Structures are given as C-alpha cells and as structure tokens.
C-alpha cells in the first residue's frame, strides 16, 4: 500500500527527511521529488530476493520508467544492469559513464543509427523484435567486423490483468515474435543462420502494473513449452532467460501489490518446476523492473491556484501542472492518492477533483480526492509518481517541464533542472521569408 506520510511538528509533509513545503519554496512548483534511499533499497531487494533463490541472476533496470544521468549512476552503484529502448536512453547511459557491457537494447523499431550506436558502444545485448531487425543487425555487424550477442523477444500468449495499453505478452502485439504461429521458432532459425549474430537467450515481457503474480508462473510454463519445441526442432537451449518486468506498485492507499520477495519466490518455484523438462542447469535468469523500483519513490508537488465549486456537482481545484507532467490519467485512466503538504495533519472533510492547467477537458490529476477544504496557495503532494511521469512529460501548451530533486537524509540535490521558456523556444527556427 502507499506508505504512510511522515508529518513534522508544523503539520508539513516530509519526504526523504526534507520538509516538502520548504522544498516547494526553494525549487518552485510543480516539482518532482525522488527518494534516493527508497530507490536504492528497492534495487537491493530485487538482487537479494532473486540471488538467494537462483544460481545466476541479473537485474536490469527498465530505463523507460525514469532515466537521467544521475539515475544511471545510482543503478550502476547498486550493481544493476540497464535496459534501454532508444538512442536517447543509450546516449544518457554513455554520458553517465554507465558500463556498456551491462546495457540491453530493446525496442520494436530500432533505427539504423540506433543499431550502429549499440554496435559501436559494444553493448551487452540487442533484444531482437522483428525479422527486419535480424537482417539489419546482421548486415551492420558484418559491416563493422564484429559478432553481436542477442536475445529474441517472444510473445507467448499470456494476457495479464492490467490495462490493455500495457499488456504486451498477447499474440496481437506490436512487440516480439508470436510463439503460437511459428514465428518465434522461425526467428530462432534465422538468428542461428546469421553469421554475425550470436543467440544467447529468449526474452519475454507480458505487461506492466501486474498485481496477479500467478501470471509470471504461467509465463515461465509457456516459455518452457516453447523451448522444448525449439530444442526438439533445432537442438538449442538458451543460456539466458529474460522474464521482463511489470510488477505492480501501490497508487492508492488500499492497493496491496505483491512484494518483491513473493515475486522472486514464485519465479524460482516456477523455474525449478518447469526447466528440468529441458535438461541441464538453470539458465541465467534476468528480470527488468522499472516502475517497481522508482514508482513509489517519487512524489509530485503542485500549487493549487484556483478553486471552483459547482454546487451539487463537484469541487475542482486547479494546479500549476497537469498532463504535461502526468499523462497517465488521460492515457490509462490512472488513479492517484494525495494530501495537502502544507496541512498534512488536517482531517479530510470534502472530495476534490484535481484539474491540470492544460487546455484539455481530460487534463486531470485525480478524481474525488479526500482533502481538507482546499484554498488557493495550498500545496498538493501526489504519491507514487516516480515512474512514467517525468519520462512521459511534454511541452504541450508550450509549458516548461518540471524539475526533479533527489532527496535523502534531509538533503536535497537537483537531479534535473526546471526548463525555462528559453529552453522551450530553443529549437524554434524562423524561416527567412517570415
């Protein structure tokens, strides 16, 4: 569940040992805060839970959840590898000095430039997603005079209980090769025949924000079924099995997502049960958590600027951010919990819907949030915003993106600065005839 807020003697919310009201005064709003110790603790939980149950494990942080140079340094220090899905994420890792031999490159449509960059930087693995990519990557690797290690992404037909936009393991998906129609087996054959590709393993990711961990047991069973077919057909057994990520987190007080320990236990049990059908030792097992590492470690702080009471209908409180820093409400109908950071000890007595400032009816932060009577100037803290918030932020309505501040032990350090109007305008060009 969402962790209980820590409130100081002034009735202010604290986060990472810092007074959130003071941070809002120092850095302005809207403002994203990231608890460094919470991120590090989660990294350690994943490693300890899996390494204590399986002989060979690698935890990859899914950079798409939230990535910047400082985040790369944290996950490097915690011994995690990194999953990138674009040239921009790879460039971030390079700029941070992240070890390239711990970088996995995903994506359903890697450009030639991105493939070349991955080859040039000698990344650990490409995760191949299409027949076109097999051909392109093999040709580029041959041109560079190198042999690159790859995994093949497959879709086993698992459809977990989550929003349809973040289900990725079903047959009808833009990702990977389908197991059921023979495309995945054909991909194995094609990669094995490619002179400049070395097939190391199989990858599968069934979706995001998953609370029913039994889905992961079904994933393992389905993958082993497929790999038995592969072994019988071409005599190949993978040395690496990448099971993806997707473990859910708490967005609302009553949410009770699975623990990392329960997740690790289920994976280990499923592997010990099913892998013997292939013979030999267990493979190197990989997982790719993203949201579950940074999601609950982040909060976003807004200033309430306008309160509009529509009698008998709804109270709207409009804040100085919106869908530019939180697309998930408009995109997934996501729901959030929050409190007034400057009046955190006060009892909630009304329901308030939090509206963003963008010129869209769908620009909402939260519906029917229980709060004390809100006033202009109050500070709203929204919980569990560490993942897929800043990462999906935009300049819609030409709004500058918010800063990200790393907090730990009562100290606050700027991780990403606030954009200015000059930043927003920086890429504009004025054609000479205008």
Description:
The structure is a single chain. The model is unreliable at 161-169 (pLDDT under 50). The protein is an alpha/beta fold. The N and C termini lie far apart (56 Å). Helix 2 runs parallel beside helix 9, helix 5 packs across helix 6 and helix 8 packs parallel to helix 9 (260-274). The longest helix has 21 residues, at 214-234. It is built from 12 helices and 21 strands. The strands form 3 sheets. Strands 4, 14, 15, 16, 17, 18, 19, 20 and 21 form a 9-stranded mixed sheet that branches. Strand 17 (350-355) and strand 18 (364-371) form a beta hairpin. The chain has helices at 20-27, 36-51, 69-77, 87-96, 112-120, 131-144, 183-193, 214-234, 260-274, 291-294, 328-332, 421-425, and strands spanning 6-7, 13-15, 18-19, 31-35, 57-62, 81-84, 103-105, 125-128, 148-155, 177-178, 197-203, 240-242, 284-287, 298-310, 314-319, 338-340, 350-355, 364-371, 379-383, 404-408, 411-416.
Strand fraction band? 15-25%
How far is it from the N-terminal to the C-terminal residue, by CA?
A: 56 Å
Output the radius of gyration. Answer: 23 Å
User: Which of globular, elongated, flat, extended, rod-shaped describes the shape?
Assistant: globular
Mean pLDDT: 95
Q: How many strand units?
A: 21
How much helix, percentage-wise, in residues? 25-40%
Q: Major β-sheet, in short?
A: 9 strands, mixed
By DSSP (H or I, 4+ residues per run), the number of helices equals 12
Low-confidence stretches: 161-169
Secondary-structure content class: alpha/beta
